[in-house]
TrEMBL record:
This is Response regulator transcription factor. PROSITE patterns: HTH_LUXR_2 (PS50043), RESPONSE_REGULATORY (PS50110). The keyword Thylakoid does not apply. It comes from Actinomadura parmotrematis. CDD domains: LuxR_C_like (cd06170), REC_NarL-like (cd17535). It comes from the Bacteria. Keywords: DNA-binding, Phosphoprotein, Transcription, Transcription regulation.
Length: 220
């Protein structure tokens, strides 16, 4: 796995690089800003870019914009975004580019090495990894007329795990239920939210998060 890291904090940038190299992963370049990130992606054609949301010069959304541009130039590029806070608009802006190979984690998750590496590998394989805290806050902040109030407690549990990027088997293991039960809950969730179920887990995650972002039922 070839990786580019874009982070303006030198200590964190080098710390993540050291961690990944210790895991025998190939960090081909590091960057301190969006322009350097795009140049590194163009030059090295990595499999994954790990990108900070807030980078110079304004420390607002440069990282997200650079990640979106990098994926536009190189559609196969997987992106794992790191953020110090839950930034709902930025998460959904990135997901709007397409759900394949995308992750959004809080920086504190890097210290939980196994979880961080699991998310990285999941994203590199074309899946989705959304921080559980991000999912929880998206669910909490969603508008009351969005249809979520129609879900049962178990369906909300399944939705949260689905939005993290877990597949049916992993959800079943986490909730200690059968895969058949998970499939039934997912069908019910899509029906109640007015969403057509997709075959690929990353696409349905994108659909759910878009739905949570605009707080409306499609076709209403």
């Amino acid at each position: 796995m070839r990786i580019v890291i874009a982070e303006d904090d030198p200590l964190l940038r080098e710390g993540v690089a050291l961690l990944l190299r210790a895991e025998s992963l190939d960090v081909v370049a590091t960057a301190g800003g969006p322009a350097a990130l795009l140049a590194a992606v163009d030059e090295h054609r990595p499999d994954v870019a790990i990108v900070d949301v807030r980078m110079p010069p304004t420390h607002t959304d440069e990282g997200i914009r650079a990640a979106v541009e990098a994926r536009r130039r190189h559609p196969g590029l997987a992106v794992l975004v790191l953020s110090a806070y839950v930034e709902r608009a930025f998460a959904t802006e990135l997901l709007a580019t397409g759900g394949d190979g995308l992750g959004y984690l809080l920086k504190e998750r890097v210290g939980r090495v196994e979880q961080f590496l699991d998310a990285l590998h999941r994203v590199a394989a074309g899946g989705t990894a959304i921080d559980p805290d991000v999912v929880a806050q998206l669910l909490t902040r969603s508008r009351p007329d969005g249809g979520l109030e129609r879900l049962t407690a178990r369906e909300r549990d399944v939705l949260a795990l689905m939005a993290e990027g877990l597949g049916n088997t992993a959800i079943a293991e986490r909730l200690v239920v059968t895969e058949g039960a998970v499939h039934k809950h997912i069908r019910s969730i899509f029906a109640k939210l007015g969403l057509a179920p997709a075959d690929r887990a990353d696409r349905r995650v994108t659909a759910v998060l878009r739905y949570l972002d605009d707080g409306r039922r499609p076709g209403r």
